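chain below, 113 aa
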Amino acid sequence: QVQLVESGGGLVQPGGSLRLSCAASGFTFSSYAMSWYRQAPGKEREYVASINSAGNSRTYADSVRGRFTISRDNGKNTLYLQMNSLKPEDTAVYYCRRDMNYWGKGTLVTVSL
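prediction:
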């Protein structure tokens, strides 16, 4: 069955960096576009970034463009999100998503002094 497991979250100071990973299994990872979403406390889940199956086309939400980079390693069945210049408003649970509404359980990112 499809499994998506996020990791790499934690506590970081404003201006810092984190790299999130999403390990995929149970499907042919290289055949699917993948996305990152996030949900801040008390807010709805929102789109962050997506990447096509080959890894050569990316899109970003305006709020993260220029600071975050989505990438993938199809040989390792893993999706990444490099997050730089983090802000307190980036605090959220981050989820990876595959088409047909498959989601991981999320990893918490907290940006605070």
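The chain has a mean pLDDT of 97. The two ends are 40 Å apart (CA to CA).
thats it, cya
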